[in-house]
Write a structure and sequence with these properties.
The chain is mainly α and 156 residues long. 59% of the residues lie in helices and 12% in strands. It is built from 6 helices and 3 strands, in the order βββαααααα. Strands 1-2-3 form a 3-stranded antiparallel β-sheet, with no helix packed on it. The longest helix is centred in the middle third of the chain and has 26 residues. The termini are far apart.
Length: 156
């Protein structure tokens, strides 16, 4: 059994070397490698968004996190990508929730605060965007994108 480097595919080698009944010698070993796509938090959240809206997406996130079998199988990068995907699809309320959830899951990541700030600014929520960018810059003061965004927002 092996998992690919992204953690999204599982490889299972079903090695079979058994003697069928009534056969005097065993056949040549047979090996079949199966590739199984593993579920991801972002896939589950996106499916829930499509079927039940933002509230269902938030619930899918909570369910995933509360299950000990899956609670640690996701990254801030995966969820950030989901946020940008739904934002580029014109679903800003969903994107705001995705980025907000990511700030709760990874409160010490400057990148998630930067992304949340971008979504808040896109939504016209300037004061909240400024606060998110300030949080991002408190973690990573050298971020040129955060500094530039903060300057633009404060100039409004």
């Amino acid at each position: 059994i092996a998992v690919d480097p992204t953690g999204s595919l599982l490889y299972v080698n079903d090695f079979l070397n058994r003697r069928p009944p009534g056969q005097p010698k065993p056949p040549a070993p047979q090996s079949v490698v199966r590739v199984i796509a593993l579920a991801s938090l972002s896939d589950n959240m996106l499916a829930a968004l499509r079927s039940g809206g933002v509230a269902a997406m938030v619930q899918a996130h909570a369910d995933w996190k509360s299950d000990p079998a899956t609670s640690t199988i996701y990254t801030e990068i995966e969820i950030n990508a989901l946020g940008y995907g739904v934002m580029s699809a014109g679903q800003l309320p969903a994107a705001l929730e995705v980025f907000r959830l990511n700030t709760e899951d990874y409160p010490n990541s400057w990148n998630v605060w930067d992304s949340y700030g971008e979504a808040l600014a896109t939504a016209g929520r300037t004061d909240e965007a400024i606060a998110a960018y300030e949080r991002s810059l408190a973690i990573n003061p050298a971020s040129p994108t955060g500094q530039a965004a903060l300057e633009r927002l404060r100039a409004r």
